[in-house]
C-alpha cells in the first residue's frame, strides 16, 4: 500500500504556495515522493491525481520538535504509541516529529536509542527523528554521544537543569556536555529551571499543607526559570556552543533570551502551544482532575498576559519554534499525585491540535502572518535541525511533505473526536479557523478531508546531519576570529618569595623550618603574636590556671569605679 502511494503522481492546482519568506500563486507537481515542479502552467505527464486548492494555502508540512511516545515517565505509561501519535500528527497537518529517547540515570544512551528505534520503526506513519536525553555525565556518556552522532543519525541531545536526583546536571556537567555538543556539531537542547530551588520549594509547599496541582505553580515560580535561563546562556557562551532552550514559559525568560540575542549570543528557543495559549489559573480550578490535567513543567504562568506575550515573541523571532511537547496521560494516571502534587506525571497532549490552535491564536489575532506561521511550525525547525531545504520548504527537489490548508474553514476541538491519546483536551470546545484538508507525507496521500489512509510502520527514520549552518556558521567564524592568545613578554627574572607551609602550620602538625616546638605542637610565633588570640581561652578545667604564678591580693581598693565616683548622697 505504501509503495503504491509513494509512486503516486499528484498535482495541486490553483492554490497559494506559502513558504516562510514569500507567498505566491503556483501549482505543485509531486512524483516519487519529491516535489518536482512549482509554478504556473506546468508540463506534467498524464495519470496524476489532481487536487483543487483554489482559495486554499499550500504549505510545508509541520515539524513538531518535541513529542514523547511509547515510554514511561514518572511511573506512568504515555497514552500514545508511535502509531497513534504519528497518526494524530498527520491528521493535524504535521508530517514529521522529533521524539525524545530518555535513558534512566546511569543507563546507556545507545540502549535507549536502540529501544526507541525498534518501537518507532514498527509503528510510525510519518518521518521521524530522535533527540537523546543526557541524564548523567561521565566518559561513557561522551563516547556514546559521539557514537550516536557518527553512526546513528542523531544530531540533538536534551539536558535538564531541573528534575533533581532524576536527570539534573550540575553546572560543571552541563558545561562539559555543551563542550561535547560543540565538538561533535550537535544541537544542545536545555530545559532551564533551578532544580535545587524547585526541590526546596516543593518541600516547603508540602509542609504548608499544599498538596494539589496549584503546588506546581507555587513551587516553580518564573524567577527560577529566568535565573536558570541566564545561567544556561552563560554556560553555553563560555563553552562556545549554540544553545536551544526548550519549554520557555514566562515573560522574564523570554526577555532574557531577547537580551542574549541582542548581545550577539547564538541562542534559539522554543515554547509550547500550551504556554502560548493558556495561563496558570487552570491550577486553581475547583475540579482537581481539571487542574491536574494542565500539569506541565515549567508550569503555565499566573499572569494572564503571558500567553499573548509569548505568542508575540514567536511573531518577532525571539522564539523560533512552537512545539506540542506532547505527553498525554489519563486522569487515573494523574491521580498518582492526588495527595502530593510532586507525583502528578508532567505532560499534556497537543500533537494533533498544534497547527490549528497556533493559526487561531497567532494568525487570526494578527500576532503573525502566514509566512511566520510556516516559520514557527516548520521552516525554523528544519533549519535548526539541519533538515532544510529538504524539509520545511516547497521547492523542486524537496521532500513532498505538503499540507493543503483552508484558512477560512473552522473546526471545534473536542476530546470526543481527537485521535491523539489521553482523556482530556486542553482546548476543549475551542473553535479554530485553519483546517488541514489534505496531508501529503513523502508523496503519499495520507489524509484527505478527515479520512486517514496510511499503513502502520510506513514512516521512516530520518538521519540528521551535524553542524547545521543555522547554528554553527557564526560560531565557527568566531572561533577563528576570537582565539585566545597569551601575551609575548620576557620572562620574570627577579626574586621569588618563599611560601610557608601554612596548612601544616595552621593544623599544628609540628615545627616548621627549625622553629622551636611549644606545647601542643604550635610554633612560638603562633602563640606569641603580640595580639591575644581571643579564640584560645586561658581557662582550664584541670585546676591549675595559667596565672597561678601571679601573687594574689586579699583585696583591692577601687578608686575610680566604672561610671565615675559616687558623691556623698549615700
Specify the helix fraction band. 25-40%
Number of strands: 21
Distance between the termini: 118 Å
Radius of gyration, rounded?
32 Å
Structural class: alpha/beta
SS strand fraction: 15-25%
Residue ranges: pLDDT <50 for 5 or more in a row?
518-528
Largest sheet: 8 strands, parallel
Shape summary:
globular
What value does the average pLDDT take?
90
Strand order of the largest sheet: 8-11-12-13-14-15-16-17
Number of helices: 18
Structure description:
The strands form four sheets. This protein has an eight-stranded parallel sheet. A seven-stranded mixed sheet has the order 3-2-7-18-19-20-21. Strands 5-4-1-6 form a four-stranded mixed sheet, with no helix packed on it. The protein is of the alpha/beta class. It has helices spanning 2-6, 82-91, 109-123, 139-151, 171-184, 195-207, 214-219, 222-239, 251-262, 273-277, 288-292, 306-315, 331-334, 354-363, 370-384, 469-481, 502-507, 524-527; strands spanning 9-13, 16-18, 23-25, 27-31, 34-39, 49-52, 57-60, 62-67, 72-73, 76-77, 94-101, 127-134, 156-160, 187-191, 243-246, 267-272, 321-323, 402-412, 431-441, 444-448, 451-452. The protein starts with a helix and ends in a 43-residue tail after the last helix. Mean pLDDT is 90; it is low at 518-528. The chain has 18 helices and 21 strands. Helix 5 (171-184) crosses helix 8 (222-239) and helix 8 runs parallel beside helix 9 (251-262). 31% of the residues lie in helices and 19% in strands. Helix 9 (251-262) links the parallel strand 15 (243-246) and strand 16.
Amino acid at each position: 500500500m505504501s509503495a503504491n502511494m509513494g509512486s503516486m503522481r499528484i498535482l495541486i492546482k490553483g492554490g497559494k504556495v506559502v513558504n516562510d519568506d514569500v507567498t505566491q500563486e503556483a501549482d505543485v507537481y509531486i512524483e516519487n515522493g519529491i516535489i518536482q515542479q512549482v509554478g504556473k502552467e506546468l508540463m506534467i505527464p498524464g495519470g496524476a491525481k489532481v487536487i483543487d486548492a483554489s482559495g486554499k494555502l499550500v504549505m510545508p508540512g509541520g515539524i513538531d520538535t518535541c513529542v514523547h511516545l511509547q515510554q514511561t515517565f514518572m511511573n506512568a505509561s504515555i497514552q500514545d504509541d508511535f502509531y497513534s501519535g504519528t497518526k494524530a500528527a498527520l491528521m493535524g497537518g504535521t508530517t514529521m516529529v522529533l521524539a525524545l529517547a530518555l535513558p534512566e540515570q546511569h543507563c546507556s544512551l545507545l540502549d535507549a536509542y536502540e529501544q526507541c528505534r525498534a518501537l518507532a520503526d514498527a509503528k510510525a506513519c510519518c518521518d521521524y527523528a530522535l533527540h537523546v536525553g543526557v541524564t548523567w555525565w561521565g566518559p561513557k556518556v561522551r563516547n556514546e554521544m559521539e557514537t550516536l552522532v557518527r553512526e546513528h543519525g542523531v544530531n540533538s541531545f536534551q539536558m535538564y537543569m531541573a528534575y533533581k536526583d532524576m536527570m539534573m546536571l550540575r553546572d560543571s556537567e552541563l558545561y562539559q556536555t555543551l563542550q561535547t555538543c560543540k565538538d561533535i556539531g550537535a544541537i544542545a537542547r536545555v530545559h532551564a529551571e533551578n532544580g535545587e530551588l524547585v526541590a526546596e520549594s516543593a518541600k516547603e509547599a508540602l509542609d504548608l499543607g499544599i498538596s494539589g496541582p496549584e503546588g506546581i505553580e507555587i513551587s516553580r515560580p518564573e524567577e527560577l526559570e529566568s535565573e536558570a535561563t541566564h545561567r544556561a546562556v552563560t554556560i553555553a557562551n563560555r563553552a562556545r556552543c549554540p544553545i536551544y532552550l526548550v519549554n520557555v514559559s514566562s515573560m522574564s525568560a523570554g526577555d532574557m533570551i531577547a537580551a542574549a540575542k541582542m548581545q550577539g549570543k547564538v541562542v534559539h528557543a522554543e515554547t509550547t502551544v500550551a504556554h502560548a495559549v493558556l495561563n496558570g489559573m487552570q491550577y486553581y480550578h475547583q475540579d482537581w482532575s481539571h487542574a491536574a490535567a494542565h500539569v506541565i513543567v515549567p508550569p503555565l504562568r499566573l499572569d494572564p498576559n503571558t500567553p499573548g506575550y509569548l505568542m508575540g515573541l514567536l511573531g518577532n523571532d525571539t522564539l523560533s519554534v512552537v512545539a506540542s511537547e506532547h505527553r498525554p496521560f489519563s486522569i487515573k494516571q494523574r491521580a498518582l499525585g492526588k495527595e502530593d502534587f510532586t507525583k502528578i506525571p508532567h505532560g499534556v497532549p497537543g500533537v494533533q491540535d498544534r497547527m490549528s490552535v497556533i493559526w487561531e491564536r497567532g494568525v487570526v489575532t494578527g500576532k503573525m502572518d502566514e509566512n511566520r506561521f510556516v516559520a514557527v511550525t516548520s521552516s525554523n525547525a528544519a533549519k535548526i535541525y539541519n533538515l532544510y531545504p529538504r524539509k520545511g520548504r516547497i521547492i523542486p527537489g524537496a521532500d513532498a511533505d505538503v499540507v493543503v490548508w483552508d484558512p477560512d474553514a473552522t473546526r471545534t476541538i473536542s476530546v470526543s473526536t481527537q485521535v491523539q491519546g489521553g482523556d482530556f483536551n486542553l482546548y476543549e470546545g475551542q473553535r479554530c479557523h485553519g483546517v488541514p484538508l489534505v496531508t501529503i507525507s513523502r508523496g503519499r496521500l495520507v489524509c484527505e478531508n478527515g479520512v486517514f489512509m496510511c499503513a502502520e510502520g510506513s514512516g521512516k527514520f530520518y538521519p540528521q546531519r551535524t553542524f547545521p549552518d543555522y547554528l554553527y556558521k557564526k560560531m565557527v567564524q568566531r572561533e577563528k576570529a576570537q582565539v585566545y592568545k597569551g601575551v609575548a613578554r620576557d620572562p620574570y627574572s627577579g626574586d621569588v618569595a618563599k611560601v610557608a607551609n601554612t596548612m601544616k602550620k595552621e593544623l599544628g602538625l609540628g615545627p616548621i623550618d627549625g622553629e622551636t616546638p611549644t606545647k601542643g605542637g604550635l610554633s612560638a610565633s603562633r602563640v606569641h603574636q603580640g595580639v591575644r588570640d581571643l579564640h584560645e581561652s586561658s581557662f582550664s578545667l584541670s585546676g591549675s590556671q595559667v596565672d597561678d604564678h601571679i601573687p594574689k591580693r586579699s583585696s583591692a581598693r577601687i578608686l575610680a569605679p566604672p561610671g565615675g565616683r559616687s558623691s556623698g548622697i549615700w
